[in-house]
Every structure is written in structure tokens, then in C-alpha cells.
Design goal:
The structure is a homodimer of 480-residue chains.
Chain A: H1 3-37, H2 40-62, H3 66-75, H4 78-99, H5 102-109, H6 114-122, H7 126-132, H8 138-147, H9 150-160, H10 167-170, E1 177-178, H11 184-194, E2 203-207, E3 213-218, H12 219-224, H13 231-234, H14 248-258, E4 262-266, E5 272-277, H15 278-296, H16 309-336, H17 338-343, H18 346-374, H19 383-413, H20 416-446, H21 455-479
Parallel strand pairs in A: 1-2
Antiparallel strand pairs in A: 2-3, 4-5
Chain lengths: 480, 480
Amino acid sequence: MTEVEIKKAQDSLQSRLAQVIELLNRQRVVEGLTHRQDGQHQDRVETLVHRQNLVELQRKLEDLHSADVAYILEALPLDDRLTVWQLVKADRDGDILLEVSDSVRETLIADMDDHELLAAAKEMDADELADLAPELPRDVIHELMETLDAQQRERVRSALSYNEDQVGALMDFEMVTIREDVSLEVVLRYLRRLKELPGHTDKLFVVDYDGVLKGVLPIKRLLVNDPEKQVAEVMASDPVSFHPDEDAYDAAQAFERYDLISAPVVDKNGKLIGRLTIDEMVDLIREESESEVLNMAGLREEEDIFASVWKSLRNRWAWLAINLITAFLASRVIGLFEGSIEKLVALAALMPIVAGIGGNSGNQTITMIVRAMALDQVNTGSTSRLMRKELAVALINGVVWGGVIGVVAYLLYGSWSLGVVMTAAMTLNLLLAALMGVLIPMTLSRIGRDPAMGASVMITAVTDSGGFFIFLGLATLFLL
Amino acid sequence: MTEVEIKKAQDSLQSRLAQVIELLNRQRVVEGLTHRQDGQHQDRVETLVHRQNLVELQRKLEDLHSADVAYILEALPLDDRLTVWQLVKADRDGDILLEVSDSVRETLIADMDDHELLAAAKEMDADELADLAPELPRDVIHELMETLDAQQRERVRSALSYNEDQVGALMDFEMVTIREDVSLEVVLRYLRRLKELPGHTDKLFVVDYDGVLKGVLPIKRLLVNDPEKQVAEVMASDPVSFHPDEDAYDAAQAFERYDLISAPVVDKNGKLIGRLTIDEMVDLIREESESEVLNMAGLREEEDIFASVWKSLRNRWAWLAINLITAFLASRVIGLFEGSIEKLVALAALMPIVAGIGGNSGNQTITMIVRAMALDQVNTGSTSRLMRKELAVALINGVVWGGVIGVVAYLLYGSWSLGVVMTAAMTLNLLLAALMGVLIPMTLSRIGRDPAMGASVMITAVTDSGGFFIFLGLATLFLL
């Protein structure tokens, strides 16, 4: 592709989305007119314009890569999304369904009848089918399984038997296998007969007659070695390989660490049963980092930004309800000190500063720890060391910023003892935030939970209740 | 690798780290003893044990892949990290330096003298050198540049001339180029003579005599096509390619979208100047998602979890200071209503509930929007639609949860009008949170800033001050 062509293509992902939206809007105007005027003659004209727009839109969409259509579908609100989907689904519904996110896929599948679903599914590979199966209606799956041959059916069943986060659910079955006792020349001739190689083929898998993996032959070695050599001489006999029941994210980290493109999956007996490829791993790495962000904010899952209000509510209610309880507890802590506040109303104005800065600082700590844990950089041996560092940071921040705010409190209310209480409370609450910022994710991880889970809600709960208690308690003891 | 071998290798990344730490601890005990006893005879024995430990440790480290050593270095506190670094740095300091994160790399480089740095750098490719250069002392770079040949020097210079986030800074120069007017047979023979192909070679670059990119020949096509065919017949003439001044993250998204392994980088005249590979793009995708998490929490950059207290402080101070100001403003809002609180002290206890739930809900909204923006799914056309949805979600949450908390307030304080004010304030503050959760990232993006930047601090600031104002304002109007 020359320079000019590239520029065009790259502008166009954004600009084509704009074009699609433009066409959809024109469409909407036309429909609005038709609806309002209702005259018969008028109607026919509008219908023509309508058709013309749709044809232009369809032509635009046909030029796009499936991944780009998927991108456009994700970025469109539900009604526009379905209009576009009607236009593209006849041809390449399968490809596109596999590219969109889970939440958007749901909205698209809901718009397809059994016949369309069946047609789309028939063109898929076993691993792709397994991906889609949980979202398909029961009778479609049933009918589908009957159209598959025994091997395909077995593969779909096997892929479905693993959890989403296991290697078995992500592997595909498109592998080129060879024997170790042939020459590279024979391998080259064999490949030529295949006419096409599966995507991401950077190595061939060497198996024995029982299908047991003996090694891999990287394409690079096949190309640079003397064709007279035997596969066994050239192959790598100790490749990184995976088991179907391993954690998929661990596999993704291995891909990242060792710069892999593809890797074999073997069963308990060392038999080759599938293959992992970098494209699936990249998706996984992105999803994992995203679910970390979402979990920290107390969102249950990835949300289609144009999801219905009801779906959004369900996604967010759980943590909001927990937050309601923690906020109520913080409120009761203040309730304990209502007498003190009545005597010195300045306390009511100053207490949110102590709580708020504690929350923010705790969020910084917990974010850093959760991230380090996701990268496997924190082990139990280093807990106390990490804790000491975080406490030191908190102490300095408390004395410095707490000092500043103490001076401000003195200037505002003219009481130096109030200023001292403020500084002390800030420091103590920052220490509490540091302590809990380390302990919460460590504890969650120790009891087998995701350390990011609602991290932000929990740390804020602690620093709110704790901050109010520390500040109002100190004030009651020393000021009243 | 058979099943047994794999299990071993996979256990060991975690367990080898444990072993390294165990050896380091034994080391420390020995050093402690030597220090305390100080007897000459004793000393010699300790030195022997000391040596023995180090030798064992060194042997363990030698078995590890550079990426695994990098992982161990990241997971160790500074003093242990430097002990391990002393043991490995002679052999493969270059490889390891390239694998560790920026912040850890800094600590390692600080521990090397110019001579060691020069030796490590001499084994690197031009793009790797450019990666490292900003962290090397001036005189090392100077001396290094003199040892390079003209082409290498030019490449380092060119890579250094781009920003970290541009394609030009990430491209490498290890490409296999061929001509379009030769047969595949000739290409195969040419490759065999090369003896080794660069990593991630999934395609060969077809250039003319001026070095202008004419197309790419995927290795897959090279393998399955008749060797008599010409390159021009088989090559893809419209590959996805990039410009050195393009945004690297856009390139990474294209790699993800089109499942690329490598892609050519061309200059303004279409001349091939380098290549991007998936491994760099995977790193970028991970870094981008991480910086999103960190930015939202108000951390300036990725932090070495064992960084010194001083470095941690610098990383966190900016946003803490901003938070101090926003907390102070929220406090002044309360100050406005001190009279009301004096009359009805229950207000002081209830107000953090309104602020807290608003903050949590706003964080959910802003997290979702920031994520969608990072994936390019939000365009200006959909702002109003998104806003309407978020407002609807907020309204329902406000009425439902606000209603619950209103009833609780009534039960606690026996005033139904206080309950109603509570419900109304919750609803209004949730609506404010939704509005700002959409507007803040959209506005940041419109003025060219990172929409994740301190998102959490900012939304909390709005919902705190806003929540206090709404609740205390309503209470003053209707209850007093």
C-alpha cells in the first residue's frame, strides 16, 4: 500500500463511522417525513429516497473489514446498530458476531431468527462455535450439533466443557502436524499440497503415531535449513506448551513473556489436542486489564455503553447497595459524636477533609498494589516491606499536608488546638488508608477472590468511617 | 516438552522466585553474623558459606530465561534486587535491561559503571539502543555512537527523533526484503543462505530498487504456492502499513483488529524504513490499559512497588495536592451552612451519605465512559444519547436508594420531612454525578487531554461539594 492509500484507509475508520451515522440520520429524517405527511404519492417518493440511502450505506459497509464493521456496530446506539446489522448480516454475520464484545453480541443475536443463526454458525470452526454457543437458543444448538461431523461435534463439546478462563476454552484446532522422521523437503512439499495454512502458523507441530507431541518445527528453521535434513534434527524438542485446564491468563502472560505467536496444547498424556494463538491472548490481556478497572470501580462487567437503562442498573446495583451500607455506617459514626458537633460546629465542616484525603490516598495505594498483584510482582514475603514503605509515605504526607490543613483550620477558626487535632487526624487516617490499601487486596487474594473487586468502594468505606471516628474522637477528647 | 517437564517449568517461575528469596535470606543471616562476631577465624568460615550461597544462587539464575530474571528483579526489594543483578549482569545485562520496566531499569542502570553499560549496549540493535538511550549517561552514549557504523548510528538517531508514543520509536530494522521479479524458488534459496530469520518474520517485504515498498509476501503464501511463480503474482500488494510519526497506540489497535504479526513502516515517499512487530504492540496495549487505571486514581506513572519513599511521594503528590484543594472547597460549602447544622445536628451525620453515594455512582459512570473512549467507541454524535441514558439510570437509583435512605432517616430521627429532603438530595446528587461523569472525560478529551486523568479525584470533588450544597441547601430551605 502506498502512502496515499494508507492515509485514506486510516482516516476512514473514524470518518467512515461518521459517514455511516450521516446516512443513518438522513434515513431517520426520511422516515420522520413519511410518518408525518402520510400522502400516498409522497409516500412513494420517500420510499425511493429511503431505498437509495440504504443502498449507499450497504455499499459503504461492504468495503469494510469485518473487524471495522464490528467497531462501527459497537459505537452505534441500539436502533442504528440494528439498522446496520440488517444490512450486513446476510453476508458475514458469523465473522462479525465473533468480533464484537459479548454485550453487543447479545443485542445482535436477539435480532436474528433461528434460520439466520444456523446459517451463520454453520460457517464457524469448532472453537468459534463454542465461543458463541452459550448465547444461542437451545434448539439452534441442537440442530447445529446434528449437522456437524463426529470430530467437529467432539471438539465443540470439549471446548464447552472448560470455563471461559481456561486454556481449553480458547484453543483452536487448526494445526499442521508432521512426523519427525521425514526430511524438510518432504515437509515443504506437504505444505504446498495444503494450499492454505491456518492463520498464525509460525510453527508446525511434530507428533508421533499416537498423536503425542514430540516437538515443534518453527517455520523460520524450516526455511533456513538444508532441505535434506530430517525434521528431528531441526525441531525444537522442548517448546512451551499448555494444558487445557490451565488458567488462560497465565498462558497469556507466558505468551507475552516469551514472545510467542502460537503454542501447542497437550492433554495429560502429552497428546496434542489444540493450539493457542497470540490473537486470542492479546484479547485476553486487554480484557483482563479492563476488568481490573471495572472491578475497582464496582462495576460487575463490561457494559455496552448503549445498553438499556435496566441492564446498566443491574450491572451497578450490587456495589451501590454495598456502598449504601458503608455510607450508613459512616453516618452512624458521626451520629455517635452529635453532641460534640453541637458544641463545636466547625467539626462538621472539617471532617470531610480528613475522610476525603484519606480516601484519595488509599485509592492510590490500592490501585498500585492491585496492579502489581495482577503482574504477579507481589508475594507474601514482601508484604511487610511494602507495608513499611506505604506507611512511611503516608506518615510524610500526613505530617506535610495535614500540617498545611491544620494551619488553614487555625486561620479559619482561630483555634490552634483545633489545628493540631486536624493534623493528627489526617496523619492517622492516612496511615489507616495505607494499611488497608495493602491489606484489602492481599486478603482478598488470600481467600481466593479477585483483589480488584470493589477495591475503591471498600477503601473509601474504611477511610470515611475511620476518618470520621479518628477526627471526631480526637476532637471530643482534646477540644471539649 | 512433555507433560512432566512443562509442569516443572511452570511451577518454577513462582517457586524459583521463592528459592531466590530463600537464598538471599540465608545470605543476609550470614552477613549479619559476620558483622556481629567480628572474630578473624569466624570471619573466614562465614565468607566460605557466603560464597557457597552466591554460587548456588548464580547457578539458579543461569537456568532462567532473561524474561524470568527480569520478573524476579521486579519482584525483589531494592537491596536484594541489586545482589541478584550483580550475579547476572556480566552475561546478559543487555537482554534483561530491555525486559524490565522503566522504573526498575533506572535502579539497575544506577548500579552499573560506564564500562559495564557500554558492554551491554554494544550487543543491542539500533531500536533497542534508542529505547535505552534516554536513561544512559551522556558520555556513555557519546562513546557508544562512535563505535557504531554509519547505518546503525543513523537508525539510532532516527529512532531517538520520535516521541515514545510514535510508531518511529517502536519500529525495528530487522527486515528481510526481496524483489518482485524473482521466483519463489529464488526467495527460498535466498532465505536458506541467511541462516537465521529475524523474530516475528511472518512476511517478507517486497521493495523496488529505490527501497519503495511494493507489497508483502506472507510466509504462508511462500510455502503453499508453486515455487515457479513470481513474487509479484503471489504477494499482497495492499498491506496495512504505518508511518513513523503515527500514534503508536493506534497502530497497536490496528494490530489487534486485523490480527497482525508484523507490519511495514514507510516514510513519506513510500520507502520502507522499518517494521513493527506484535510483541511491542502487546506491551503497548498492556501499558495503555495500566496507565488508564493509574491515571484515574491520580498516580502520575507506573511505580516500582519497591521504589523509594521519596519517589512514591513525587508520583502521588500532584493529585493529593489537588485533592486537598477540592476537599477544602467542600469543607467551605459546609461552612456556609454551619448555622443550619447547629440547629439540626442530624444534618452533619446524614450529609456524607449523600456525598459518598454520589461519588461512588459517579465513579462507575466515569470509568465506563473513559473505557469506551479508550476503545474509540464514543463519538461526539452520541454524547447526548449517552447523557440521557446515564441520567435515567441516576434518576432510578436516586428514587430507589434515595427512598430507602429517606425511610432510614425518618426512622432514625422521626422526621418525615427530613426523609423527603434526603431522598431529593440523593436523587439530585446522583443526577449531578451522571452529568459530570459524562462531561468531565468528554471535555478533557476535547481539549486534548487524557480523559482518564485524575478522573476519580475530579468526580469525587464535584459530588462532595455538590452533595453537601444540595443536601444542606434543601434542608435549610425546607426544614428550618
